[in-house]
Amino acid sequence: MQDFWLYFQLGWQHILDWQGYDHILFVVVLCVNYAISDWKKVLILVTAFTVGHSITLALSVFKLVTINTPLIEFLIPVTILITSVSNILSKKPKHRGSNFKYALALFFGLIHGMGFSNYLKSLLGKSSNIVGELFAFNLGLEFGQVIIVVGILLLSFFLIWIVKIKRWDWNFFISSAIFGISFIMAAERFSAAFLN
């Protein structure tokens, strides 16, 4: 049980680590155009992302897939770019197409999971309880993501309902800022992925 709490803590600390801010950016841009009243949709969206990264994290830890680290490190900001553009192009979250958003979050989770895998493999070493530790780490990641989601939904609520910023302006500002950051990240990682 002590190992469970250790890996749970490592999971949420990893997702909330500002040095690995690309995952924080993805979770923020994934839910920024939703309101607090949409919390169930956001929870499903983030859980779809968690399921995706849990799958590839497990496949990688059990050495069932091999990872081209530079390519994955390039694709992570690409997922953020695509999500940012999707937010910018849609005026509000559509009820139609929710299944597509969930599928996309799941697919992008597969990519992000590969990004987590080297970190987790270095932690596990030759551990004999990989399944339990992997489960605890994934729960920790989900817990960290929920903290980010709650934070962004509360900030959105405050700015939109109290300060009276237009919802579209808030979505456009955050999505555009994250687009710019992720574009720079993708450009910096492009050469390592394709030119070396």
From TrEMBL:
The chain crosses the membrane at residues 20-36, 43-65, 71-90, 102-120, 143-163, 170-187. Keywords: Membrane, Transmembrane, Transmembrane helix. It comes from the Bacteria. The keyword rRNA-binding does not apply. InterPro entries: Put_HupE_UreJ (IPR032809). This is HupE / UreJ protein. It comes from Pedobacter caeni.
